[in-house]
Amino acid sequence: MGEDMMGRVAGKVALVTGGGSGLGRADCEALAREGATVIVTDVALDAAQRLAGELGGGAVAFSLDVASEQAWIDVLREIEERFGRLDILVNNAGVVAMADVEESSLEQFRWVNAVMSEGVFLGCKHAIPLMNKRDGGSIINMSSTGALLGYPVYLAYSAAKGAVRSMTKSVAVMCQEKGYKIRCNSVHPGAIETPMVQLAEGRPGEAQAIPEGVLPHGAKGAPKDVANMVLFLASDESRYVTGAEFVVDNGLTVRPW
User: Contacts by 39-46 with C-beta closer than 8 Å and gap 24+?
Assistant: First the structure.
């Protein structure tokens, strides 16, 4: 098969956290479509297994609580035994608690940050050695416009996503300084039509159709809009890109009003 006929991530092994639904599902679909062997991980194992079955191409599913260090160690050991490599890590798993700084309990704050701040830390920490055993790779950390703007009711979520933004840059520089062939970037979506957004807007399970083409200000994006960015960062097309933040928000953060 000619190079121009191969997928953009053909031959690569990709692990996606929170892959059973929402943005994670779209990421898995995009990576599998372009030739990657996808490891779908989620705390909801049934959803991950269903998606892996739909993807084909050697996709597998694992249960993974990203807040558990031992869970990361076990899953990565299994990946090494089965595939011998890891080329792409998408730290996507996320949760949200709606409360401002006065209303949030310490338990809520710790729970949200355990999943999205500590979970990203653990993923990077334990995936890097496996990536280094072969050809390096690409780490894509899912942050948010919540790391760039002030959203009072999403205090804990924004704090965690801010940590993801900063950690990404630290990991990117460390990999360069140590001579690792590993890039690390963050993606910052705005309002995307996912189950999490549906829940936050009080319409759980009620999906809204997102039209094709350029969208007007204030419109929600589709999960594929984020997945297309993830795919670019996962591929060798982005070889000169590391430590950067990619805002996918239809211009929200650049508007002066």
Answer: 39/13, 39/14, 39/15, 39/75, 39/79, 40/16, 41/15, 41/16, 41/17, 41/75, 41/93, 42/17, 42/18, 42/93, 43/93, 44/20, 46/20
pLDDT, tens digit, 9 for 90 and up, residues 71-122: 999 999 999 999 999 999 999 999 999 999 999 999 999 999 999 999 999 9
CA-based nearest residue to 216, from 158, 183, 255: 255
d(CA 253, CA 225): 17
CA distance 148 to 244: 14
Maximum Cα interatomic distance, the chain, rounded to a whole number of Å: 60
> Which of the four CATH numbers 3.30.1490.20, 3.40.50.720, 3.40.50.300, 3.30.470.30 does domain 13-201+219-248 have?
3.40.50.720
Catalytic residue status for 154: no
User: Using CA atoms, how far apart are residues 27 and 223, in angstroms rounded to an integer?
Assistant: 8
Catalytically annotated residue among 151, 154, 157, 240: 157
N-term to C-term CA, the chain: 51
Among 96-110, 123-137, 185-199, the minimum mean pLDDT is found in 185-199
